[in-house]
Amino acid sequence: MTAVLEIRGGALGFGDRPLWRDLDLEVRAGEFLAVLGSNGSGKTSLLRAILGQQRLDEGTIELVGEPVRRGDRRIGYIPQQRMIAPGTPLRGRDLVTLGVNGHRFGIPVTTATERSTVDAAIAAVGASGYANRPMGSLSGGEQQRLRVAQALATDPVLLLCDEPLTSLDLQHQRGVSELIDARRRGHDTAVVFVTHDVNPVLGMVDRVLYLAQGRFTIGTPDEVLRSDVLSALYGTPVEVIRSGGRVFVAGIPDGDVHHHDGEGE
Amino acid sequence: MTIFDFTDYGDLLALVYNSVIAGAVLGIVGGLIGVFVMQRDMAFAVHGISELSFAGAAAALLLGVNVVAGSLVGSLIAAALIGLLGSRARDRNSIIGVLMPFGLGLGILFLALYPGRSGNKFGLLTGQIISVDFAQLGLLIGISVIVLAVLLVIWRPLAFDSLDPEVASARGVPARALSLGFMVMLGLTVAVSVQIIGALLVLALLVTPAAAALRVSSSPVMVPVLSMVFGFVSAVGGILLAIGGSLPISPYITSISFLIYLVCRIIGWRRGRARLRARAVESPA
Fold it and tell me: What's residue A263's pLDDT?
């Protein structure tokens, strides 16, 4: 299988505080990688680096064999779930259209081809029924489905998701993550999925990248989400409890409390 | 005092023909740029820029140079400062809060020092479209056309950056350059508006029409179109009404603009209620 995303010897830090270093990572086509870790462990910075918005301190990042650059059309991006305010002059269809041609300068005309691309993307996430309503009048789950459509409309080889399920209820968490899962199975899209809670996507994840304390561990969920592995990573006893197909991590040290809030519910 | 007297209307209309054209163009440009002013939450910035534009115009009056040019310089300095220093809303508002009284104070100082006719003095604050001469008119229209053209070219990326900044940035939309470019266009538009309805009333053509349009539509085509129509009707309607009487033009423009907003609010409110009722019928919980 070809590597869609390849990071070699990657290092990134804030000032003299390293977020992570010596990161070697390869994400293959169709692979679902979950990036876990506390707030401030460098999950979002990793996404920014892949998007070409932030330079690595050391190492290289390549997308399908070329160094990453800003605005690469082959990357789809779903930002952190943030409600769009009522009254915003933006309908669901407009959000998806911006994903298709919003970056282009020139007379703002949407071609018939672009319109059918948008229609297809909206239909693929089951949002045709409400795509013409203002975004601000839609529920969090409906908004997020349209964001998935926006990210996938241009048929990316890599889909980056930054906490896309935050503040969604369980049913919508499942709906949105199943959309992403179906996409990577049907189109071989590689998925890098940043989350503080792995449970909604636990059954879909191929591998986990766990960032903590300036270090990281990579492996299958069964290899990484274990008491001994996370204890070694955090450098302090951490307990991983598996119950009813869900994973809970307890005992994460201070400074990493946010992670605990999310996962140890 | 007669408020309305339309006996010599035809002759008067010929006299203010230039003003009507200027008002029409400004109404359209103001309505269009207002959509982005609303999207980027910059109503306060418009006010801040207009006060510095006023200071520039007052300085030009004092120095005996072109008032439009002075107004432009003031506007552009304010727009650049706000654009460079205030990328975040909170920073921006504090910078504007600091710039605004400074600009207004400077303007008042220059006017106090100006020995000429006092009619020009308040004109800059509250509107003086009738005194726009032919050369200035050409300048105002030229600037408006440039703003229109640039806005049209940067429309999509600017809308993307205004409405969905995170994804826009991930898609490689140059947020900083766009923001600066937009501020310059806003500065130009404000400078033109100051000449026509005055520094204190600029918001009536740069904010109210777009705010009204947003009350009745969410469509990316309808909102700018309605906003331009509202701006046009306010500006041209205001001028046409004003020349039949002895009152200044600005209150007519601001009143029409406000009335349109009021009507749109009521329409939007009634629609919202109808939608709620429809939803209640759909899902009788």
Answer: 37
**Which domains, ranges and CATH numbers included, belong to chain B?**
10-207 (1.10.3470.10)
* Residue among B154, B167, B227 with most chain A CBs within 10 A, to mutate: B167
Q: Cβ–Cβ of A89/B153 closer than 8 Å?
A: no
> How high is the ipTM of this complex?
0.89
**Taking CB atoms and an 8 Å limit, are B156 and A70 in contact across chains?**
no
The values of phi and psi at residue B9, to 5°, are: -60, -40
pLDDT at A261 exceeding the cut of 50: no
Tell me the pLDDT tens digit for each residue of A148-194: 999 999 999 999 999 999 878 888 899 999 999 999 999 999 999 99
Q: How much is the pLDDT for B3? A: 62
pLDDT at residue B68 greater than cutoff 80: yes
Q: How far apart are the first and last CA of chain A?
A: 38
Cβ contacts of B45 within 8 Å, gap of 6 or more = B37, B82, B86, B92, B96, B183, B186
Compare all CA atoms of chain B with the CA of A156 and give the residue at the minimum distance: B171
| pTM of the complete model | 0.89
